[in-house]
Inverse folding.
């Protein structure tokens, strides 16, 4: 799977998967669209990044900590905060796959 990242929190590794199933579950859980989520992330990433990370950790692994406890883990040291940055960069990249651009005029010309 291309859309995944491993994060290390307090010396324990967790695999985070950003497949279609997770993204659908996340949007249903938050009851918002991708555009709304992007707007919320732009406005207040300090609130939304841990929410997204916790949902992904819970989806991809068996975890024994709440979102509030995750925030405490992230705040406890710089290395954990760096892992949040790595997670979010991978998450955002999973929303914008590097697909080749398609020229609509070229597609129409091929149909004729």
């Amino acid at each position: 799977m291309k859309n995944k990242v491993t994060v290390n929190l307090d010396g324990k590794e967790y695999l985070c998967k950003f497949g279609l199933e997770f993204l659908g579950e996340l949007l249903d859980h938050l009851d918002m669209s991708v555009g709304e989520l992007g707007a919320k992330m732009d406005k207040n990433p300090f609130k939304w990044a841990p929410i997204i990370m916790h949902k992904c950790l819970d989806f991809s692994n068996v975890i024994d900590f709440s979102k509030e406890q995750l925030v405490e883990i992230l705040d406890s040291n710089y290395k954990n905060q760096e892992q949040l940055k790595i997670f979010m960069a991978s998450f955002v990249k999973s929303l914008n796959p590097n697909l080749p651009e398609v020229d609509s005029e070229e597609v129409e010309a091929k149909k004729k």
The first strand starts at residue 4 and ends at 9. Residues 4-111 form one domain. Residues 78-95 form the longest helix (18 residues). The beta strands are 4-9, 12-17.
